[in-house]
UniProtKB/TrEMBL annotation:
PANTHER family, per the entry: POLYSACCHARIDE EXPORT PROTEIN GFCE-RELATED
Name the UniProt record assigns to this protein: Polysaccharide export outer membrane protein
The keyword Signal is annotated on this UniProt entry: yes
Species of the source: Nitrosospira multiformis
Polysaccharide export protein N-terminal domain: residues covered: 41-113
Organism superkingdom: Bacteria
Any Gene Ontology CC annotation: pore complex
Subcellular location as annotated: Cell outer membrane
InterPro entries recorded: PEP-CTERM_polysacc_export, Poly_export, Poly_export_N, SLBB_dom
Family: Belongs to the BexD/CtrA/VexA family.
Main location: membrane
Gene Ontology molecular function, alphabetical: polysaccharide transmembrane transporter activity; porin activity
């Protein structure tokens, strides 16, 4: 009995020492994001996996829908291996016109994006204790709530109020605190913040 008591006291003593260390290691604070911050206007950039309709006026034989390859390029009749990733649809249209001008007099091209993924640098990534961690295409005025809906919320093991967003600001990475539990479980709309292109949402696991 004495040996059992000693082991029990020792276990609780160790727990009392370890618990503060876990709390200190997992409760690093980051600045909060402003929920009223307005997103900066941004033109959509084409990325690998997008589908684009290329319409050449009065030249249906070279008009077609093509996918953007994993290497970020497209191939169409008379135009091979033309870079498309990272360009707006207008920029790509002008590049195609330049390429076609060798064969067609004063071509007029319109590019319409029909399936949207976007370049990797513009996607929103969700990692950790999300129901379905994944990369999402950014959409104008996208918020944290929109992202959580897209990934099916968080798991039962998530420490939602210890989540953070990793964001590129002026070429440097910064981390910002977000409150997922308050947003999802308490309906606190002040915890809903704007997302930006390239954000990474990190959802840690709860210790207990």
């Amino acid at each position: 009995m004495n040996a059992l008591r000693i082991r029990t006291v020792t276990w609780f003593s160790c727990f009392a020492v370890v618990l503060p260390l876990l709390s200190l290691g997992g409760c690093k604070t980051y600045p909060s994001l402003n929920p009223d911050e307005k997103p900066i206007a941004h033109d959509y950039l084409i990325g690998p996996g997008d589908n684009v309709d290329i319409i050449v006026w009065r030249n249906p034989e070279v008009s077609m829908a093509v996918p953007v390859r994993p290497d970020g390029k497209i191939t169409t009749p008379l135009v091979e291996d033309l870079p498309a990733s990272g360009k707006t649809s207008t920029e790509l249209a002008r590049d195609i016109e330049e390429a076609l001008s060798k064969y067609i007099q004063q071509p007029v091209v319109t590019v319409v994006v029909t399936e949207f993924i976007g370049p990797y640098s513009e996607q929103i990534r969700v990692i950790g204790e999300a129901a379905e961690p994944q990369a999402l295409p950014y959409r104008e005025e996208m918020t944290l709530m929109d992202v959580l809906i897209a990934v099916g919320g968080i798991t039962d093991f998530a420490a939602g109020n210890r989540a953070r967003i990793v964001r590129n600001v002026d070429g440097k990475q910064h981390q910002f605190s977000v409150r997922l539990d308050d947003l999802i479980r308490d309906g606190d709309v002040t915890a809903n913040v704007p997302m930006k292109q390239g954000d990474v949402l990190v959802i840690p696991e709860s210790y207990f």
